[in-house]
Amino acid sequence: MPRWICILLLVFIVAEARAEPAGQRFVSIAFHDVVDRPADLSTDAVTTSTLVQFFDWLKGTGWTAISLDDVSAAARGQHRLPEKAILLTFDDGYKSFYTRVYPLLKAYHYPAVSSLVGSWMEETTDGTVLYGDKKVPRTTFISWDEAREIEASGLVEFASHSYDLHHGVQANPQGNIVAAAITWRYDPQSRTYEDDAQYEARIRADLTRARAMMESNLGHPPRTMTWPYGRYTGPALDVAKELGFSFALTLEPEPAYTSDLHAIQRYFPSDNPKLGDVVRNLRFEPERPRTLRIACLSLDALAAAGGGRAQDRKLGQIIEGLRALGTNTVVIDANAALPSATAPLGALYFPTTIRPLRMRMDLLGRATWQIRTRGGSDVFVRLPLAAAAAAVGKSNVPRLVGEMLRHVRPDGIVIDTPLAASDGAIVADRPEIIRARRAALDPKRLNNSARLGLEAYRAAAAIDPRLRLMLMMQQPGGPPGWADIGLLPPAEDASEIAEVAGYLRAEGWLRPEMSARVAFALPVVPDRQVEALRQAQRLGASAFAVCPGTPALPPSAELSAAFSAASYPYRP
Q1: 571: which residues sit within 8 A by CB, 6+ positions away?
Q2: Which of 92, 215, 230, 484 is the least buried, fewest Cβ under 10 Å from its Cβ?
Q3: What is the pLDDT of residues 187-213, one digit of tens each?
Q4: Which of 281, 308, 343 is the C-terminal boundary of a domain?
Q5: Interval 210-220: pLDDT, tens
Q6: Residues 332 and 472 in one domain
Q7: How far apart are the first and last CA of the chain?
Q8: CB within 8 A of 162, min separation 6: which ones?
Q9: 83-97: buried (b, 16+ CB within 10 Å) or exposed (e) per residue?
Q10: How far apart are CA 293 and CA 200, in angstroms?
């Protein structure tokens, strides 16, 4: 019997909470501008004909457009939502909502939610509004008179889209601009970041001003907060709840549930998709299979380049190298390389009050943002927990991870904990199900190291509730049902990775809706990587990683051709 199977049979299997999202399921869609001519389309717009087709499809296939009153009543148990229930929403308060959408809502008798940005509404009619990085006429958006007329119909509820958070603020010393609602702002004059009290005070002042403006002009305060860009933080949500918001809307492409009215997820149909694409995306089914290509990255070389243009050039080279490799997910080490596997945590790439003198360079936030926006990859960050515990004590590790999340906006974090394998439950690649299982997990059911990992994740998720979790698995096997991705240890060669893939295939892990949750780390030896990838790919694997260690960038043409997400699926 192979050594890894013996180990797999002997390891302690962690029990997981078999939770599903509570409450009734419904879907929500977030439209923005609606234009008559295709020539007038922008990234966030759809044509009137597309919207009419969608409304006709809803009517013809038995869907029911619901209101927030319906959602609230269902949450209180007063009645059940229809089986096919959809919440229609329209963000930003475009004039087209009055001229094109509102007449259609009346014709179909569909309720909807429309979100208004206070500072845009306050601008004079002959003024301009900064929308993204462009100035547009104030007349691009509805007036208060039009809003009152629309609301009087009883079909539309207006939500707050903040007073002035629909823009970016400086997020780090290098000048990256990140969404104002999720950023602890960096002040280049004082060379300091906002602390928690300053951040929360800024969010509170903005939301309070927006509520007062809407109450003054509509006769009542809004009960719904629509987060700009769909992004929010745990502290910002706490502020919104304190101020009296009963609902909050995001832009996560997932179904919504009446059990969590402060995280109503919505699908955003951008680039004027065809009706078939809209319908398919509203099913919220996993891609079959979802392709995952992961590369691990140390920032040591970037730090060694120094600052200024030299660092910018080096970062550009790294990003172009990752693009050439074909990654769609990057794992960044938040710390400088350790001299040994047992060494305590040394230099860091983010500010922290726990170890303020150990920051080598404030690079993690910038690298994360640039790799996502320029390189097009999701970014996970990793901080070695055993090394962190050795340096700051176990009790301070969650706080250290939480501080890291105040200065970086990743898509997820990586936990390296001696957790061996799944408890046998195979969960599809559905983020809402995995998140519910993670929330229901009792830390007392885990060993000490795994418990520390879960506590560290929860400290990070308290800052960014949308955060995903990747586990660095110690043994071959599927991840527990509360982890989004399990990163397997590197195989020695093609025969070993094929053996592991064959076992996981027999267990059901490589079915199309599951396979992206198990990432196969390729052999460390470059000459063995391509054949190992091909062997596992033939057995149904769709997720691969060049980890640990940073791959050679730019990559070899052979590895790039085999590894790139753009070339999947491989046809033998």
Answers
A1: none
A2: 215
A3: 999 999 999 999 999 999 999 999 999
A4: 281
A5: 999 999 999 99
A6: yes
A7: 29
A8: 117, 118, 181, 206, 207, 210, 225, 227, 228
A9: eebbbbbbbbbbbbb
A10: 37
